[in-house]
Write a structure and sequence with these properties.
By secondary structure, the chain is an alpha/beta fold. The protein has 5 helices and 6 strands. The chain has 2 domains: 30 residues; 174 residues, Rossmann fold (3-Layer(aba) Sandwich). Helices cover 33% and strands 25% of the residues. Strands 1, 2, 3, 4, 5 and 6 form a 6-stranded mixed beta sheet that branches. A hairpin with a 7-residue loop joins strand 5 and strand 6. Helix 2 crosses helix 5. The chain is elongated, with a radius of gyration of 22 Å. The chain starts with a helix and ends in a 6-residue tail after the last helix.
Length: 211
């Protein structure tokens, strides 16, 4: 290949590469692209079942006597938003091209449960909402500790009302007891929190039960 031809071929490859990069950026900024809005919960709750204590909601996180201690605010909303970005829920629920929008402030549970239309003002026709409505540390003397998460998901097309709504609890068993190893409580709860997004995506993908 002559030098002039080699330069022309190299320029064509570089131009194609830069065009591909520009195209991917345009897709990210395309107002017509789908978006998935995600809200964190308002923090960690707890439920404990033991031989002599149990039944008081949030007894552990509030430091009640007789309840196993839990690190202070290990899953505050700001910690959840970082974990949500790492979990990449738009890929897990089968919409990897969607633009992920993670909100800093949690939604009131009543808003999450009772809103008929779109909660966030969004110009796109293809729009989804994923709400982390509740995160609870369940400590049981017999079965061990689990992180339970209540998710609520809605998908909208061009209509004002959702074309699909789904919500469920999922749980991940903790490999580390937060009460016995407080230094590992926050990273272990974060791991379980991220894992629960995958479990929810699996539940969302299952065929709906016939009534």
């Amino acid at each position: 290949m002559k030098r002039r031809q080699w330069k022309a071929a190299l320029f064509a490859v570089l131009a194609t590469g830069w065009a591909g990069i520009a195209h991917s950026r345009d897709q990210a900024d395309d107002p017509a692209a789908c978006t998935l809005h995600v809200w964190p919960s308002d923090g960690l709750g707890s439920v404990y079942s033991g031989w002599f204590h149990g039944g008081i909601v949030n007894g552990a996180v509030n430091g009640r006597d007789g309840y196993p201690p839990v690190a202070k605010d290990p899953l505050m909303p700001s910690a959840q938003t970082d974990a949500i970005a790492e979990a990449a829920p738009q890929r897990l629920i089968g919409d990897g091209q969607a633009r992920l929008v993670v909100h800093d402030a949690p939604l009131p549970s009543r808003t999450a449960r009772s809103s008929a239309g779109r909660i966030a003002a969004d110009a796109t026709g293809c729009y989804g909402e994923l709400i982390v409505d509740d995160v609870t540390l369940r400590q049981d003397l017999v079965t061990g500790s689990h992180l339970m998460t209540l998710f609520r998901y809605r998908h909208f097309g061009d209509a004002d009302l959702p074309d699909r709504s789904f919500g469920t609890w999922v749980k991940t068993k903790l490999n580390v007891d937060p009460a016995k190893d407080p230094n590992q409580a926050a990273p272990e709860l974060r791991r379980a929190y991220i894992a629960n997004f995958s479990l929810f995506a699996d539940a969302l993908a299952r065929p709906a039960r016939k009534r």
